[in-house]
Amino acid sequence: MSGKRPSVELPTIEPSKNVEAARGLQARLDSLNVQLVKRVEELNAHQLESDSALDEETEEKDPAIVVMEVADQIAYLRKLKFQYLEQNAKDKYVKSIVSDIDDAPIVTAEQNKDYRCAKDKLAEAQNNIKLLAPMVEQDYQQVKQATDRAALLSQKIMEARTSLMLLRQTHPRPRLTIPLADQKLAEQVDEMQALSDQVQAIKQKVKSEKQRVKVGTNEVENLRLEASDAEKAVKTTQVEEDDSRLVPLYDWFTASLSLQRSICNLEDSHAESENELRLTYKIDMPSPSPSHRIMITLIFAPDTRRLAAAEVSGLDELGVEPGDVVDAHVQVNDVHGLVAAVLARARTAAST
Fold first, then answer.
1. Cα dist. 295→250, 284, 336, 343 in Å?
2. In terms of Cα–Cα distance, which of 296, 268, 264 is closest to 283?
3. Beta-strand (E) ranges in the chain?
4. Residue 328: how many CB atoms within 10 A of its CB?
5. DSSP string spanning 96-165?
6. Is-contact 288 318, C-beta < 8 A?
7. How many angstroms separate the CA atoms of 311 and 271, rounded?
């Protein structure tokens, strides 16, 4: 609601002309002897039946009980005063009605006119209040909303200042500026590109190494089969020690074993017991680092050719954890796959 608000003008009541009549009424009320001030002795003489006994026990009572009794007495006196004022007002009203018309205050037409004007002004003021109340309510709601928003913004400002203070304490000077951040980002992008190129080169190298190991493993497997066939042939052919056929076979087996060792870099193979075999392999490290040794211990079940357990030492220095590879190949009884997988991981770690 908008627009100019109407002004509220309260009526002004001028002094009444019948002052003398009011003074006469006051004199009559004084002569009736109904005022509470003139009956102090009578009120003081009023006492309940149990007051005498209470007066005797006052000195022996608890102060809290005395306070409660005093409060009850004050409440009783207030009720008595209210009854007196009510009775006095009734008495005045009855006397004003039944009194002689000559003694009643005279109200002139001019006073009635003044009263009517005052009544009209009062009604107009009430109408203005009714019209202005919604506008005041609307203004109050707007002010309240603005106050709430200001309080919320003030709280947010305090939180932002606190966060800024914490950031400044966490990141002391010199702080990173936008140009320095852009420069650092460019350097990081170049570094990431270089690292990506290195990763690709290493992946290609690992792929070629895996292919070479795969080929070598196949050759070793073929040589194992040939060696096994040769052993069987030696057992089946019962010949003398000076048989000339054993010399070429021995030379071939020795050459095959040397070739296998050169392919897999097998330095030593030693049987600790009937069911335990230890294999020592040499891993070539990047120059100028020396070669690294890895020992694979194969434990077989007694009187069987099944792999029961395997232990690998020497991979911790290369940062390789072979636990999952060892367990997987032991479960499927794959000795050749176990050795090939361990050596592949070791060579990959050594090349990186």
1. 28, 14, 15, 10
2. 264
3. 266-273, 276-283, 292-300, 307-313
4. 13
5. HHHS-TTTSPP--HHHHHHHHHHHHHHHHHHHHHHHHHHHHHHHHHHHHHHHHHHHHHHHHHHHHHHHHH
6. no
7. 14
154-169 exposure pattern, b = at least 16 Cβ within 10 A, e = fewer = eeeeeeeeeeeeeeee
CA atoms of 17 and 111, how far apart (whole Å): 9
Quick one: tokens of 330?
């032991």
| Residue 77, token pair as written in the block | 């006196």
The distance in angstroms from the start CA to the end CA of the chain is 81
Q: pTM value?
A: 0.30
Location of structure tokens 């080169």: 201
Cβ-based neighbour number of residue 247 at 10 Å: 10
Tokens 């020497």 belong to 314
Token pair 């305090």: residue:
158
| Per-residue tokens: 212 | 């070479």
Q: Which residues on neighbouring strands pair with residue 312, listed in sequence order?
A: 296
Torsion of CA 319, 299, 209, 218, to 10 degrees: -170
Q: Any residues with CB less than 8 A from the CB of 138 and at least 6 apart, and which?
A: 1
Per the listing, tokens 């194969």 go with 298
User: How far from the centroid of its chain's Cα atoms is residue 267's Cα?
Assistant: 60
Contact 258, 243 (CB under 8 A): no
What confidence tens digit (pLDDT) does each residue in 264-312 have? Answer: 667 777 777 878 888 888 777 776 777 778 888 888 887 777 888 888 8
Tokens read off for 138: 């609307």
Q: Could you give the percent of the chain with pLDDT greater than 70?
A: 72
CA proximity to 311, closest of 347, 332, 339, 283: 339
Amino acid found at 105: P
